Amino acid sequence: MFQNLQHEFAEHIKDPDNSKAPVGIDDRRMAIYRDLFFNNIEGFVSSAFPVLRSLYCEYDWQRLVRCFFVEHQCHSPIFLDIAEEFVNFIASEYQLTPDDPHFMLELAHYEWVELAVSIKIETQTYEWCDVDDINTALLTLSEAIWPLQYQNPVHLISLDYQPQEAPETATCLVVYRNKELDVDFMLVTPAIIHLITLLQNNSSQYYHELVTAMHQAMPQYAKDVIEQATFDAISTLASKGIIRKSLKNA
User: Fold this and answer.
1) Which of 25, 29, 183, 188 is deepest in the core (most CB within 10 A)?
2) Is 122-246 CATH 3.90.930.50?
3) What is the pLDDT along the chain (250 residues), one digit of tens a residue?
4) Which pTM was predicted?
């Protein structure tokens, strides 16, 4: 009996238009719970996805969040987890409507990555890498970094700029936490994405090892060209704190 009451209570709070309230509970009291639960979820989602939120009128945004609230089964009350669940909901359950931008999933994922990078806890021991260190240091990658590739220029999207279709060229980005611990991003080339992926897959490497791997990936270029391009890319990434000197063997 009590379990049935709990189920009716929860279903009505989630979807009051289609689920009756439990018998005998004053509607004014139920309204408090309806508003409290939904407003909490709506507040979490709006805070995590401010750009996406800005593209909707109030009615359409409420509709979208209500759809998430009703249809998706969340297993954690943690703010970051709810944001990730919202991205998963859009990716696997939600059916886009004419009121939704075609880049909705990519933009939501990008905004979630910014949030995830902002709270990432780093465990590596490292030092900042200077240009003079590149040739000899054991190079490693910041843990607060996320290389990305999207069909749409998500970093440019705003209320005033909403591409009607995806450009022919993909957008490659690196979202990272800089030396001042602020979240930032870089617009990069696919080659830099590959360089970062090499370090992600192999933890720590020396410059000459990265040059060899990059040349293997792009044999159409002379090795000296690859060597200079790799050095320049590492210099730029190191200046932003993305690539560091590993101290694991110190």
Assistant:
1) 188
2) yes
3) 545 545 555 555 666 665 565 555 666 766 666 667 788 889 999 999 999 999 999 999 999 999 998 888 877 777 789 999 999 999 999 999 999 999 999 999 999 999 999 999 999 889 999 999 999 999 999 999 999 999 999 999 999 999 999 999 999 999 999 999 999 999 999 999 999 999 999 878 999 999 999 999 999 999 999 999 999 999 999 999 999 999 875 4
4) 0.88
Residue ranges per structural domain of the chain: 2-100, 122-246
- Distance (Å, whole) CA 229 – CA 215: 11
Query: Strands 138-141 and 204-206: what pairing?
Result: antiparallel
CATH assignment of 2-100? 1.10.150
